[in-house]
Design goal:
With 359 residues, the protein is α+β, with helices and mostly antiparallel strands. The protein folds into 4 domains: 109 residues, Beta Barrel (Elongation Factor Tu (Ef-tu), domain 3); 74 residues, OB fold (Dihydrolipoamide Acetyltransferase, E2P) (Beta Barrel), CATH 2.40.50; 42 residues; 73 residues, Helix Hairpins. 39% of the residues lie in helices and 25% in strands. It is built from 6 helices and 17 strands. The strands form 3 sheets. It has a 6-stranded antiparallel beta barrel. It has a 6-stranded antiparallel sheet with strand order 6-5-3-8-9-10, with no helix packed on it. A 4-stranded antiparallel sheet has the order 2-11-7-4, with no helix packed on it. A hairpin with a 5-residue loop joins strand 13 and strand 14. The longest helix has 34 residues. It is rod-shaped, with a radius of gyration of 47 Å. The two termini are 85 Å apart. 19% of the residues are buried.
């Protein structure tokens, strides 16, 4: 029994020593996944930057519609190159399109009526008026002949014709003469064509209806969103069925509004917009001597940059913080650089980078 207890004690002692040794071992520290950014210049200015597509001026193009409605069809995809004037998407126009068609028909009808007025007199109408003159002339001759017979008979024998019959013949001749004058006036009026005031009034009516049609057609065209310039579709923030307005599209994650579409340039060259704190602005070197380097976060990539321009307007740092108000009013000066995208490195607009500007 004593041997068993002794043996167990020895085993326990050995186990304790081994455990103490194992727990006392210190594992070596793992190397960092990437080296933190460091200042490559003896004296340099640090600034946070954001990658943008290469633009001659300004930033990426945020595309907004000029009308509100439901997206019915999207014609492009993210990453696709587009040309200026190319359709990007359609907005539902089922209400406006019939109105435009109606106004087009009204404008065409008014223009046709104007052409009809200008084409007067119509030959067939003039022929009818001329025939009425001839008929009135023939009727006048008949009544005048009848009156002459009555007068000759009365002069030969006053008792052969009553005075009433003679007066009736004279009245019939007078009526026929008046009818001839009316027919002649009507012929002259028909021959003269449409009244100039009627033509002017119809011309103004036709022009007004045409302008209304052109206005509604221009509005209808805005239900198709076109590319404002050549570029690449960087972000499409809507899907068919989404409701969009002049303020943009509703973003379900941030519960705010975003541009319907973001258009950038090609990816060969990229811009880097860095924000220099206002207290460091006096230390910026002369633009002709500016040297800068960009460090890509999460990698060891370091890239030299070409100076492009300074946006000469100091503003609150809301682009990086995405805050419209801050407890401390941090104001920055945007400085834009240009960098060529290296092969094998993933760089995308919207990515944050570290920028060092040499002094």
């Amino acid at each position: 029994m004593k041997k068993i207890v002794f043996t167990l004690s020895i085993v326990g002692l050995l186990a304790g020593c081994i455990s103490a040794y194992l727990f006392g071992l210190v594992e070596p520290t793992l190397p960092p996944a990437f080296a933190p950014p460091s200042n490559p210049y003896p004296s340099g200015i640090y600034a946070e930057g954001i990658i943008e597509s290469d633009q001659p001026s300004g930033e990426n193009i945020n595309v907004y519609p000029e009308v509100a409605g439901t997206v019915t069809q999207i014609l492009v995809s993210e990453g696709q190159a587009v040309r200026k004037g190319q359709p990007l998407l359609y907005i539902g126009d089922s209400v406006l399109r019939p109105t435009v068609a109606q106004q087009k028909s009204q404008a065409e009808a008014a223009r046709t009526l104007l052409e009809e007025l200008k084409a007067q007199p119509r030959k067939e109408t003039l022929d009818v008026a001329k025939a009425q003159v001839d008929a009135a002339l023939a009727a006048l001759k008949t009544t005048q002949d009848e009156l002459a017979k009555q007068q000759n008979a009365y002069e030969l024998n006053p008792k052969s014709i009553s005075r009433d019959a003679l007066d009736s013949a004279a009245n019939a001749a007078a009526v026929a003469k008046a009818n001839l004058e009316v027919a002649q006036k009507q012929y002259e009026l028909t021959k003269a064509g449409a009244w100039v005031y009627d033509i002017n009034n119809q011309e103004r009516t036709a022009n007004a209806l045409q302008k209304a049609y052109e206005s509604s057609s221009a509005l209808l065209a805005k239900y198709t969103l076109y590319a404002p310039r050549d570029g690449v579709v960087m972000a499409m923030n809507v899907t068919p069925g989404s409701y969009i307005s002049m303020q943009g599209a509703y973003e379900q994650y941030t519960q705010g509004v975003t541009p319907v579409l973001v258009l950038g340039s090609g990816q060969t060259w990229l811009n880097v917009r860095c924000y220099v704190d206002e207290i460091l602005v006096p230390r910026l070197p002369d633009p002709a001597k500016i040297k800068a380097q960009m460090s890509v976060r999460g990698s060891t990539a370091k890239m030299p940059m070409q100076f492009v321009r300074v946006q000469p307007f100091v503003s609150p740092k809301i682009e990086l913080a995405d805050q419209r108000t801050e407890r401390v009013d941090v104001r920055v000066l945007p400085v834009i650089f240009k960098v060529k995208k290296p092969a094998g490195t993933n760089l995308y607009p919207g990515e944050l980078v570290d920028v060092y500007i040499g002094q």
